[in-house]
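Residues determine shape. We examine one folded chain.
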Amino acid sequence: MAEYPTSFDRDDLLKCARGELFGPGNAQLPEPPMLMMDRITDISADGGAHGKGHVRAEFDISPDLWFFECHFPGNPIMPGCLGLDGLWQLTGFNLGWRGWQGRGYALGVGEVKLTGMVRPDRKMLTYYVDFTKAIQTRRLTMGVADGRVEADGEEIYVVKDMRVALSES
């Protein structure tokens, strides 16, 4: 396993987006505005609800975020798919953090429940990703995880069986 810290600030996440954290051709985060977190507060390969790894991260919400203006005019709401993408981003980040090689891509999700909304008056999202499987073989590198998102402490999204893979092609 590579030796990386267990928390990352926004500058670190931007280095990852530029391909500078895990090296060229390996896991990268998207750049803003698609980067859906401001910091990773904790990460492991053996922690979390199932002892197979976890990630905790935060995203500061402000009324001037790009999606509020267009989704929906007069009724601004963060698209739920962006919260799901944040969970996928963190799942892939964990695989790169483990030192596993390849570019990340989402493979799917088993179940998604959206029970709340992110409006401009919210202050912070907290992401929780708990791995149920982390697989690295000669032919496959993949993480399977459950996740949830809280807005100001209120659970608003729950997902089961997110799948992210790394591929060297």
